[in-house]
């Protein structure tokens, strides 16, 4: 059954790959963009997830053009790494506002229509770092760990309404975000990953599509790692 899907930050990287998997299987797919055009075949809606009014307007546009959002993939995210002692309050707050509060703004806006439609899939893109920790990533790790508590609380609130809220925790995926890491750090991580490689965005997208599908209807409040074994036990 074709669904209406909204992927935040779906104009590039992991989000784009996720959006393309849904489009390929025949779903109606919208992606948020902050500038430029949406990739072909996807409805682009302007939205900065740090702005509640913009989130509301984006959902209103998707609802008008594609129908109520049945699958929300909260993927938009950013890093602003530095050591705790050097981290400014602004650096901490901006990352939390985008990665955690941004996801919450979208989940809140999506929830009423999901309850009314008696169907919903919320998928939050966290990170292995959320539970594993990462030196220089106090802000990012806190935001990604926060998504776990949020998804599990949504599960408890809305689980009886045929709504699932799950977390996908990728490890190291080849995108602009990891391209920005110093080579030394990349090499260190590669050594720690049992799979001994970084992953392609498609390897995350397949898991997200599975979570949104009928086969995963009884999977709720879960954290699914897609990390080549890096975070085992976390
Ligand atoms: P990219 O940096 O390649 O893309 C980030 C996406 O998020 C872009 O579409 C960007 O939009 C969007 N975005 C950032 N801030 C905002 C905002 N305020 N409002 C709306 N959109 C925003 O990242 P990845 O594709 O690598 O990462 C996607 C998600 O996966 C993130 O949540 C990230 O934390 C997570 N992740 C990534 C891993 C990796 O190894 N790459 C590992 C684990 C988790 P724009 O194009 O306008 O900048």
UniProtKB/TrEMBL annotation:
First and last residue of the signal peptide: none
Superkingdom assignment: Bacteria
Segments forming domain Ketoreductase: 3-176
One Pfam family matching this protein: adh_short_C2
Family under the similarity heading: Belongs to the short-chain dehydrogenases/reductases (SDR) family.
Name of this chain's protein: Beta-ketoacyl-ACP reductase
Organism: Pilimelia columellifera subsp. columellifera
């Amino acid at each position: 059954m074709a669904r209406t899907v909204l992927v935040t930050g779906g104009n590039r990287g992991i989000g784009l790959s996720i959006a393309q998997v849904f489009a390929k299987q025949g779903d109606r797919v919208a992606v948020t963009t902050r500038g430029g055009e949406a990739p072909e075949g996807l409805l682009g809606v302007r939205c900065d997830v740090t702005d509640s009014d913009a989130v509301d307007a984006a959902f209103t546009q998707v609802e008008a053009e594609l129908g109520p959002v049945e699958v929300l993939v909260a993927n938009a995210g950013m890093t602003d790494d530095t050591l705790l002692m050097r981290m400014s309050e602004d650096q901490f707050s901006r990352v939390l506002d985008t990665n955690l509060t941004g996801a919450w703004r979208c989940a809140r806006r999506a929830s009423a229509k999901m309850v009314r439609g008696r169907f919903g899939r919320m998928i939050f893109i966290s990170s292995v770092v959320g539970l594993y920790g990462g030196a220089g990533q106090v802000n990012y790790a806190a935001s990604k760990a926060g998504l776990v508590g949020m998804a599990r609380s949504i599960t408890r609130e809305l689980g009886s309404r045929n709504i699932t809220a799950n977390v996908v925790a990728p490890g190291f995926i080849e995108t602009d975000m990891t391209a920005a890491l110093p080579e030394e750090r990349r090499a260190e991580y590669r050594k720690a990953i049992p799979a001994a490689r970084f992953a392609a965005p498609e390897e995350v997208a397949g898991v997200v599509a599975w979570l949104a599908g009928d086969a995963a209807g009884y999977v709720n409040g879960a954290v699914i790692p897609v990390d080549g074994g890096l975070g085992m036990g976390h």
